[in-house]
Amino acid sequence: MAEPRTPSPRIRQKRRQARQDILDTARHVLREQGLDAVTLTGVANELGMTKQALYHYFPSKDALLSNLLTALLDTEIDALIAAVQAEPDTDKTLSALIRAFYAHHIEDLDAFRLFYCQSQLVSAPEHGFGPDVIRDRINPRTRNLFDILESRLVQRGISKKRRQRVRQLAFTAWTSALGLLTMLSVADNTGDPLIHSDSALLDTLAEVFDGAVGREIS
After folding, report:
1. Cα 164 from chain centroid?
2. Per-residue pLDDT of the chain (218 residues; tens, 9 = 90+)
3. Secondary structure (3-state) at 15
4. CA dist., res. 15 & res. 53, Å (int)
5. What is the pTM of this model?
6. Going from the N-terminus, what domains does the chain have, and what CATH number goes with each?
7. For residues 189 and 93, what is the distance between their CA atoms, to the nearest angstrom?
8. Which residues contact residue 172 at a Cβ distance below 8 angstroms, ignoring those fewer than 6 apart?
């Protein structure tokens, strides 16, 4: 039996572009119509292609959602890194992180819910967020973010214990931003807004972590 032919670079590029177009369309459907509309049929209809053609790139809804989730994480982390690196004041690194996390997600809460609240619905281990996906695709991206935060916050000669403390502080800032967006997402979904304004809550978090950074690296 003849060996299968290796696709040419042009064909591989065409396939990569097709996958990217599908993921971009899935995100558009998510933003405009919500999670329930992100199906193979819905995305295929939006693209003007058949569901069978979509199977060539994503064999199931779980596979489509899994790849969409990792794409959403990539865009989030890219936005956070850009915001942190653009902040000239090192002491405000974590408040820049918090504000960027808020700005990135507040206008697209369906995508936020999909990644942080509903990713467990991607059920098939071979296509969902199983151990391999988390280890090979998720952890390296988040680790890179915290490496960048640590490199901005620590000073030369700082002890290993202080370095670990700074990294924990960065992680806590990120989880605080996540918690705030979770509450805002719940409030949005239930039509029951929080008592405090978004800006007031962001300012409070910024003050807390700016002060903590000042104490840790001084």
Report:
1. 24
2. 555 567 677 777 888 898 999 999 998 888 888 778 888 999 999 999 888 888 888 888 888 888 888 888 899 999 999 999 999 998 899 999 999 999 999 988 888 888 887 665 554 444 455 666 677 778 888 999 999 999 888 876 677 888 888 899 999 999 999 999 999 999 998 999 999 999 999 999 999 999 888 777 66
3. helix
4. 12
5. 0.82
6. 1-58 (1.10.10.60), 61-217 (1.10.357.10)
7. 31
8. 209
